[in-house]
Amino acid sequence: MSHYLLAIDQGTTSSRAIVFSAQGLPVARAQQEFKQYFPQDGWVEHDGEELWLSTLKVCREALKQSGLSASDVAAIGITNQRETTLVWDAQTGTPIHPAIVWQDRRTADYCAELKEAGHEAAVAAKTGLLIDPYFSATKLRWILHKVPGALERAERGELRFGTVDSFLLWRLTGGKSHKTDASNASRTLLFNIHTQQWDEELLKLFGISPSLLPEVLDCAADFGSIDASLLGASIPVLGMAGDQQAALIGQACFEPGMVKSTYGTGCFMIQNTGSTPVTSKNRLLTTVGYRLNGQVTYAVEGSIFVAGAAVQWLRDGIKLISHARDTEAMAEQTGDACGVYLVPAFTGLGAPYWDPKARGAIFGLTRDTGIKEIVTAGLQSVCYQTRDLLEAMRQDGAVEPSALRVDGGMVENNWVMQFLADILGVPVERPEVTETTALGVAYLAGLQAGIYKDLESIARHWHRQQRFEPRMADSHRSKLYDGWLDAVNRVRSES
């Protein structure tokens, strides 16, 4: 039997495919960026066909690079940007509207109405989530109400809804498989994380027809096999998880109390809480970490909407840098006490503030402020927001992490990692394989394929590449963080 695994990592700004060996090492990878569309203030969309075509392209490229044929691949795992919402024709697979991305805030007013009507506590008790435009249900409702005839078609069973994993699976299997996993389902606002079922009362609240919904499986399960014409052989899809949950697995955070933080477009910190769902008093989310053999491991999560996207904005939006790698040298020259704070609330603030109407700002500008200071402030904003999440976890009584395991594109920046350790006061560990999202879903597929016996055998593959120890004085740490809290208060719509 072949021991190679193909991971599809469909993210917010790019689609990736990575071929992994059974040892969890990348053999070949391919990546393609695609366009984000911003039709109105606070709206973010993707073209569903672009998501599909870019995914197919990178799978073919990664296989070609690896020198393997499709028949050499034991299984495929799919991980994805999570709450992004697609609705497509059940016959043709054609989306009826552009994908509404997790960052999109168009349903903020409807969410406010639901809260005012007193629904939030009941929704949170069932889903572990807050009523916020971030999650899929209100996006799905918007599509059904705004696309002519969609509501009626949904009632007649002619449409399908899914997060990106379900959409790709549908396409990969030629419409034979409409499934998702428990981690993605737990991000929709429609799934009861205690019963592990789509919830009738929630479906009624949002006006969603059950015929739209995918079947929910474990994260390691038989999701169907891909059409042989696409890659040259039929390969089973045996693993699926939302990107942050996949990273939790890729970082081998299998013990309660272990924490990982992923720095992609946004930043997501997840702490494993074991078999018990922990309810946050600080507006963090209770979610499914992973579900294996019908057993749920829960997690608590803080979500920051803008991390790498701040660097992208510095590069593409205001053109202060030509490449993300330029930022490290600039920050080294500037130092940590530049006095400038950039609050990247471009699409509102995520945890623990959950303020969809907040907007970004830069504070502390003087005549001496130049490009270097603004770029450094952009990098620091990611670390300050991580501290916000860690503080919320601390206040919820979470176990103090012995270290923070990090991954994602930004963690290659040594300056950012050192500043992160400094501002948190916690060691930061960077693994040898930083593509942990893709790796996590490859592990899940390998678990189902029998390549790995259990989670322990997966954990043995995790290796640390570098550890960053905090070295900042407590007084300096407090002063910098207080400046950040002041800046955040100034942009909040509710403060």
UniProtKB/TrEMBL annotation:
Record: residues binding ADP: 12, 16, 265, 308, 409, 413
The Gene Ontology CC terms held by the record are:
cytosol
The secretion signal range is none
Q: Which HAMAP family does the entry mention?
A: Glycerol_kin
- Binding annotation for glycerol: 82-83, 134, 243-244
Provide the function of this protein: Key enzyme in the regulation of glycerol uptake and metabolism. Catalyzes the phosphorylation of glycerol to yield sn-glycerol 3-phosphate.
Q: Please report a single Pfam family linked to this protein.
A: FGGY_C
The entry's protein name is: Glycerol kinase
What species is this protein from? Pseudomonas guineae
Q: Give the enzyme's EC designation.
A: 2.7.1.30
